[in-house]
Design a protein that fits this description.
Length: 694
């Protein structure tokens, strides 16, 4: 190892690989939750254009290799042993190390990147703390365990859990953000935005693994006392929670007593715990809202417009012990999500096999929630494991490239995780080809393209989704693998996020699928009924929630039809990948599916993602081949793929296939019958794009 390498390795192990303990326990029975609406504040148009993000700032030669345009989503960190910390410190350190450049300040670093035409993020860690980052203040900022220890984030890494109920740590974060803005950052990433929303799950996990759980510092305990005083009268406190004197009540032993229970057991055993979790969740939300609001205000005062993203692990769809991981309630505060992802049904596998491990559900959800690209990356625990293997052992070049193509085909982006000490040039080589391709063909990825479909999955964000995340994930997977194009529509919960969805918004759809209507707002329930009454079709899994009898099958209502499905077939499909669940789901709603796309013998391995660009007078069809072997990472190419698509254009002059897999454009023959166009795509290795031009 060169001098310095060891340092970097140490930093990586400390920082990037440290993941919430939630990822350490896999629970096959857990389900998950979901997303939010699209009220984003973007005026920097770069976000709506195709970009290539990397995790840590790379030197010029590597930037070229991977076609990076946004240099270092996770630039900010600390460098162990070097006494450096700040919003750019880690990226700057690595970039300097490999390029030999010396930067006298953050501003100089940012300026040097700007001169290369790059966009530069700064990063703020909002839950994880470390002595190298906060210095002596860490004692004040860290939450405490029941026995008074500093709460840990990652015991081995020496990092601690920063208490979001403590206004001082939020002020510290605001200071970090101002530093980033002053230095000229184009955007800020907030890592682990969930904060004290993770308290319940970390308390639960601490009963299985060695860690000091958070939730017991004076800010938490006294904050909870104040919360109860604000929300309940003393007689309510006595009747509901057996608290006779709020001012002297000892909360610590009571909260600690049930930590070993899963979420539902815990709130059933002690109803006070539900209030405690709500207090933690709301307090964190208010704190992070203050952070984001103050950074935006400061940025504006400096004549700048800062873009803010956040990491929320798998968009909150991963659960342990039924505890809801948070994240999507921040959608309206953020410009976009840049998030670690995982196919959560197989959470114990670092790289679950294709074709099963599709990420379309998360990519569409992130976009629906923010109206901006879902910028998605392989979770840090999986990458950490990979780095520990010699470069030739785990072959994932094509595996990564499939996910990369899929992200761009779903109007998102796939983050490059190349890190030189681990010599991953080969592993990221497939993605490099795709990055080059998407940048050379940016106009094909125009964010204003619409999906030509009459089908939508309507995601109502709210507590009801806690038991039904698998339902949403399974639905998305069924539709994608059946080549039924669909939109995901996101609406809030009326608390963290506004409810803005109207009948007008749904007017283009013939069929909506609603993953959970449990605990949605009265207005949302009315909306679903009105949609059907006015002639639409809705697939609903909990008819009683809408006031209907719990009967399986079609149910006529007004001018339309409900399909009530009492068994959660999509969740079963997501959890098992047994194809009979997919086909039985399709059989149940068969008569209501309007065919927009047919791909012969797609066999869950070929998925088409079609778009319509009326301004350019063309259809775009992204074709992805998910047939990638788990053992040797071999892509099994397809040939002569028969495709039929519904046509919105009055006529067609050409059908062209382009691809990162070959250099020549292919003009292919086509026929048009009754508004349907048919053609045969000669070859599909990993990723083709078909352009149907008027
Ligand atoms: Zn605390």
């Amino acid at each position: 190892m060169k001098k310095g390498m060891k340092n970097i390795l140490v930093v990586l192990l400390i920082g990037l690989i440290s993941v919430p303990a939630t990822a350490m326990i896999s629970n096959p029975l857990t389900s998950q939750n979901f997303s939010t609406p699209s009220t984003t504040q973007q005026s920097n148009s770069w976000l709506q254009e195709t970009q290539v993000f990397d995790m840590l700032a790379l030197p010029p030669n590597r930037l070229k290799t991977f076609h990076v345009t946004v240099n270092g989503l996770w630039n900010g960190f600390f460098v162990e042993g070097e006494n450096l910390s700040g919003p750019f410190e880690f990226g700057k350190y690595l970039e300097s190390f490999y390029s030999g450049n010396v930067y006298e300040s953050d501003a100089a670093f940012v300026q040097a990147q700007h001169q290369q035409g790059l966009l530069v993020p700064g990063t703020i860690l909002t839950t994880q703390g470390h002595p190298a980052l906060q210095g002596d203040l860490i004692e004040d900022f860290a939450c405490r365990s029941a026995d008074g220890q500093m709460a840990t984030w990652d015991l081995n890494a020496g990092s601690y859990f920063m208490c979001a109920q403590n206004p001082d740590i939020i002020d510290w974060m605001i200071g970090q953000g101002k530093k980033a803005i002053d230095a000229g950052a184009d955007m800020i990433t907030l890592d682990e935005i969930e904060g004290n929303g993770l308290v319940g799950i970390l308390q639960y996990v601490s009963t299985f693994i060695e860690s000091n759980e958070p939730g017991f510092c004076p800010n938490c305990l006294e904050g909870f006392r104040a919360y109860l005083g604000d929300h309940f009268t003393s007689s309510e406190l006595s009747t509901l929670f057996d608290i006779s004197d709020l001012s002297t009540y000892e909360f610590l032993p009571r909260i600690a007593a049930t930590m070993n229970l899963s979420y539902f057991q815990r709130i059933q055993t002690d109803p006070l715990m539900k209030e405690y979790f709500t207090f933690q969740e709301e307090g964190t939300f208010d704190a992070k809202k203050r952070l984001i609001t103050e950074l935006r205000t400061y940025s504006t005062s400096q004549g700048k417009n800062i873009i803010i993203s956040a990491n929320s692990f798998a968009l909150g769809t991963s659960q342990t012990g039924d505890y809801l991981i948070q994240g999507l309630q921040y959608s309206s505060l953020l410009d976009f999500f840049s998030f670690e992802n995982k196919y959560t049904a197989l959470s114990d596998q670092s790289f679950p096999s294709l074709p099963r491990s599709k990420w379309v559900a998360w990519e569409k959800l992130a976009r629906a929630a923010t109206n901006a690209p879902g910028v998605i990356l392989v979770d840090s625990a999986a990458m950490g494991k990979l780095w520990q293997q010699p470069f030739s052992v785990k072959k994932i070049r094509n595996y990564l490239a499939v996910h990369c193509a899929e992200a761009y085909a779903n109007q998102g982006a796939f983050v490059n995780w190349f890190i030189k000490p681990f010599d991953q040039t080969y592993r990221w080589g497939g993605c490099a080809k795709i990055y080059d391709f998407v940048l050379r063909n940016r106009q094909l990825y125009d964010a204003s393209s619409s999906i030509d479909t009459s089908t939508a999955v309507v995601y109502f964000f709210g507590k009801g989704m806690q038991n039904n995340t698998g339902n949403y994930l399974g639905l998305c997977q069924i539709l994608a693998e059946s080549n039924i194009p669909y939109d995901v529509i996101f609406d809030g919960d009326g608390q963290y996020l506004n409810t803005t969805l109207t009948l007008q918004n749904l007017s283009k759809y013939h069929m909506i699928l609603v993953p959970s209507v449990v605990d949605i707002t009265t207005q949302q329930k009315t909306l679903v009924k009105e949609f059907v009454a006015s002639g639409g079709t809705a697939v609903v899994f909990d008819p009683e929630e809408l006031g209907f009898p719990a009967n399986e099958g079609p149910y006529n209502y007004g001018n339309g039809t409900f399909y009530f499905m009492l068994q959660d077939i999509p969740a079963l499909y997501y959890q098992t990948y047994t194809d009979s669940y997919r086909t039985s789901f399709l059989d149940a709603i068969d008569s209501s599916i309007e065919e927009h796309l047919k791909i012969k013998n797609s066999n869950r391995k070929i998925v088409g993602y079609p778009y319509y660009q009326p301004g350019e007078k063309r259809h775009i069809l992204h074709l992805i081949n998910y047939d990638c072997g788990a053992l040797f990472d071999i892509i099994w190419p397809k040939s002569n793929i028969q495709i039929q698509m519904k046509l919105l254009l009055p006529s067609v002059s050409s059908v062209t296939v382009i691809s990162p897999d070959f250099s020549e454009k292919q003009n292919i023959p086509f026929t048009i019958t009754d508004g349907l166009i048919e053609f045969i795509v000669p070859t599909l290795r990993l990723y083709d794009v078909v352009v149907i031009q008027e």
